[in-house]
Amino acid sequence: MGGLDVRMSGVVCRHGRVDAVRDVDLQVAAGQRVALTGTNGSGKTTLLRAVLGLHRPAGGEILVDGRAPRGAAGWAERRRVCAWIPQKPATGRFPLPAGELLASGGDRAAAGRAAARLGVGDLADRPLHTLSGGQLQRMYLARAVGCVAAGAGVLLADEPTAALDFSGQEEAAGVLLALPVTVVVVTHDRALADRCDRVLEMAAGRLREVR
Amino acid sequence: MNALAAADVGALLELVPVQRAGLALLVAAVGLPVIGVVIVGLDIMPVRFAMMHVALLGIALGLLTGLDPMLCALVACALAGAGVAPLARTPSGLSGAMGLLMSLAIAAALLVLAVSGVNAAGAFALLWGSILSVGTADLWVLTALAVAVPGLFWWRRRDIALLLHDRELAQSSGVRVERLTLLLLVLVAVAVAGAIKLTGALLVDALTLLPALAARRLGRSLLSITAWAVGIGVVVNLTGFFVALRHDLPPGPVLVLIAGVVVLAVHLIPERRIRSWRVPASASLPSSH
């Protein structure tokens, strides 16, 4: 099994004065699939964003493949090796054709095949803001498959099935968990969590192992 | 009457300053609407207001030091554009800072004008522009923008499309957003300064923002929006120029009004009508909303 290991130690993230993530330690082995659950506002999304440097931690360290990013080039590399599915995919301030979203992952062909498998392959010419929430989420999932094909070793997925109907959730979970990489998925979807190797729960910024 | 007026326009067009003004507007129509696409795309409308004020400060400094005022305006705007780039992470962060920059720049400009003892009316004339005084140097600046801005858009079209769509998506797709934002903001600032002679600082929008606003409704990707913006810019500028000549009106306001009418007209066209002008493949797709 491929993928990269992720190690967090003493990670602290703040939104202003509020501690969103408190002293989180987490070891995820290469290729492991981890579901991150917990109530809204418990810090799951912030923790995921901190891995990508979209939220700068106030303390602690996050290593991917044993490396801590340094400088702009380091963060660019971190974002290349960690594919990301955002919680609320932006419909954007400016029109972007879905095909360009698929290409942005680095492997347009692989993303296109994934899009076809997820039933949104023929929407590539459409601007993203004309897609429904579920179609948009499938596009982002297909993009993430493209990222993995282009060399990403970790997938950070933030509620990737939240906008999907039941059959869509199952289909998306299948695509997500079949990827040969380390997966950390924030989800409220029981079925998806049950299919993961580990389930963690976050509450008020702290992390605990459920199973 | 018509024949006489037409002859008048013909005679006017033989004058070198008029020819130069027409050429400047044509060249400006290639570069500046693309800048407008950046302003609309990054949602940084306050930035251009601030840049107009900074340009005025540059002009005041030029008058004080005896250097070329336009050059000073360009440099001041470029520096200010680069200076505000770190604030561009969120549009809200930028607009507050722009208010501050605007007030400080205009206050400093007034102070410099007072200290230098220059007739302030001379500097403020730039607020209204003086298209017939367009010089060779201005033409060069506009030409450089007309080549550099669309060139950059073509060369970096993937990165710019992602950045204008969503900053974080661009970031996670390996786009160096800080560097690209800095470059775009400097270009916006320089373009605002460069366009001042044409319509005046107050009406720079006619050349930059308004064509882009109309284009955003017509196009469905960065490239098609940019192409629409340039097309609308060329039509508006040439129409405005000839209407102004023909009726002996100031070109700045005429350009703004024509561009404004185009924006309104485009927004009044029903969406389904617009769809049929676009790529046919997308219109026939079933929607599964």
TrEMBL record, chain A:
Q: Which molecular function terms from Gene Ontology are attached?
A: ATP binding
Could you list this entry's UniProt keywords, alphabetically sorted: ATP-binding, Nucleotide-binding
Q: Which Gene3D superfamilies match?
A: P-loop containing nucleotide triphosphate hydrolases
Query: Taking every annotated instance into account, which residue ranges of this chain make up the domain ABC transporter?
Result: 6-210
**Domain of life of the native organism:** Bacteria
Note the coiled coil stretches, chain numbering: none
SMART domains reported in the protein's UniProt record: AAA
Q: Does the keyword DNA damage apply?
A: no
Specify whether Magnesium is a keyword of the entry.
Answer: no
By its UniProt entry, which SUPFAM superfamilies does this protein fall under? P-loop containing nucleoside triphosphate hydrolases
Family annotation (Pfam families)? ABC_tran
Q: This protein is called what? A: ATP-binding cassette domain-containing protein
In its UniProt entry, the species of origin is given as Streptomyces zingiberis
TrEMBL record, chain B:
Pfam families the record matches: ABC-3
Q: Transmembrane ranges?
A: 21-42, 54-81, 101-127, 182-210, 222-245, 251-269
Principal cellular location given in the protein's record:
membrane
Q: Where is this gene product found?
A: Cell membrane; Membrane
Residues in a coiled coil are none
- Tell me which UniProt keywords the record has, alphabetically: Membrane, Transmembrane, Transmembrane helix, Transport
Membrane-topology descriptor: Multi-pass membrane protein
Question: Could you tell me which InterPro entries the record lists for this protein?
Answer: ABC_BtuC-like, ABC_TroCD
- What family does the database annotate? Belongs to the ABC-3 integral membrane protein family.
Q: What is this protein called?
A: Metal ABC transporter permease
